[in-house]
Amino acid sequence: MINSCPCCSGPLVNDFVPTKNKKEFLKKSCNKKLDHKFSIQSFADNHDEIERVYVTVDTGKLVTVVWDLLIKELYVTQFLGYPNLNYTTKKSAYRLPYTDPDLSDYPKLVRRIKTYIVFS
Ligand SMILES: [Zn+2]
Q1: Measured in angstroms, how far is the CA atom of residue 118 from the centroid of ligand 1?
Q2: Where are the domains of the chain?
Q3: pTM, whole model, 2 decimals?
Q4: Average pLDDT in the 22-32 region?
C-alpha cells in the first residue's frame, strides 16, 4: 500500500469519501502542493486494492488524469473540483490509451501523460 506521495515523498492525507450508494471510498492524497497533486482511491473495506489513481499535471492549464484500474481506463478531465472528482465528471472527460501507472518514476509518468495529452 502506498503511504507517501510518489512525487514529493510527503505523507498522504486520508479522506473517507461517501458515494451515492452509501459505500465509502478511502482517498489518500497529496493535494496541498501547488506544483502537483496526487491521490489514490480504494474501497474503504479493502485498502489494499487501489481502484483509482489521480494525477494532476500542469499543461498550461491544470488537468487531472485518472486511472480507473478496475476497468482499465485512463482519462483526462479539466474539472478542478479536486479532490471530489466523481463519476459525473467523467462525461466531460476524454480517454487516453491505457497503460498501468508506474508510480516508481513520477517525473517519467508526468512526461508520458503530457505527451499523451499533446497528441490526443
Ligand atoms: Zn506530493
Answers
A1: 24
A2: 13-119
A3: 0.83
A4: 87
